[in-house]
Design a protein that fits this description.
By secondary structure, the protein is of the alpha/beta class. The chain has one domain: 3-Layer(aba) Sandwich (Rossmann fold), CATH 3.40.50. The chain contains 6 helices and 4 strands. It has a 4-stranded parallel beta sheet, with helices on both faces. The protein is globular. Keywords: Cytoplasm. InterPro entries: AB_hydrolase_fold.
């Protein structure tokens, strides 16, 4: 989507295009009710997918994702997808901003990784994996 080394693409220039791409990837991989883990900029794909197709997911793990404020609060309140919201307590930007919107999801819990910044899963991998595994076990 134009970040890192990926070239810009008209296919993902719109929210509808990003949802369609993620939908196609999940279908091609034959994933039935996966848990979608979404750090940072991937939130521009994952959050619209959650809001449009949340019933296709067994769970959602946003890690200080981008793009949460672009959607009305009511859309979040209607979703029943189990969600583990993750962010580092040293992330002064995206983590707290995303948390404000994601807390509206009825079936959420929050894991704050102490002493970690925005890339909390890199800085505190043991804590991140512990929280993720506990969430996955709870999903059954």
């Amino acid at each position: 989507a134009g970040h890192g080394d990926s070239p810009p693409s008209d296919a993902v220039a719109t929210e509808r295009g990003r949802v369609a791409l993620l939908d196609r990837v999940l279908r091609e991989l034959a994933l039935h009710r996966p848990v979608l883990v979404s750090p940072s900029m991937s939130g521009r794909f994952a959050v619209p997918f959650l809001l449009a197709r949340g019933a296709r997911l067994a769970g959602f793990v946003p890690i200080a994702p981008a793009g949460t404020a672009e959607h009305p609060a009511q859309r979040y309140r209607q979703l029943q997808t189990p969600t583990l919201i993750v962010y580092g307590d040293g992330d002064a930007g995206l983590g707290p901003r995303a948390l404000r919107r994601l807390r509206l999801l009825p079936r959420h819990r929050v894991a704050v990784l102490r002493g970690a910044g925005h890339a909390c899963y890199v800085q505190r991998p043991r804590d991140f994996h512990g929280a993720l595994l506990a969430f996955l076990r709870q999903l059954g």
